Amino acid sequence: MTTPRLPGDSSPEGAPQLTGVIAGRYRIERKIGEGGMAVVYLARDLTRDVSVAIKTPKGELVTQLGPARFAREVQISTQLQHPHIVPVLDSGVHENMPFYVMPLIEGESLQERLSRSGPLAIQDAVGIIAEILDGLAYAHSLGFV
Length: 145
Known about the structure:
Number of strands: 6
Structural class: alpha+beta
Strand content: 25-35%
Number of helices: 4
Oligomer: single chain
Radius of gyration: 17 Å
C-alpha cells in the first residue's frame, strides 16, 4: 500500500501536503500544526469568507488504519457540543483523504506559552486542567472514552 498523494505534494519525505481548494469550498492557505496522528491547515471558507482549521489524518495512518477510523473520530466529534471542545463544522473526503473543518481558534499553543514565559503559575495550570477535565467529563457522560 502507498501513502495517499494530495495535490501539491512536493515534500521530500513524501508526506502529503493539502493544497488548493477542497470540497469546492475551502482554499488551503498553509499548514499550521502537526501532531502524532494528524495535520492541521489554515484554510479560507469561500462560502462564508472566514478562516477555518482543517484537520486531516497523516497519510500513513490512513494507509494503516483505513479511512473508517478517522470517519469514526468525525462522527464522535460532531456529537460533542461543549464550550471546552472545538466543534466540527463540516467534513468530507478529498482525493481519498478524509478531513474535517473546525473554527480557527486564534492564539498561542500551550507549548508556545511555556516557551515564552516558562512554567505556569499553579492557578493558571489548575484553570487549564479544569477546563480540559470539564470537556472530558462531558464526553464521558455521553459514553465516549
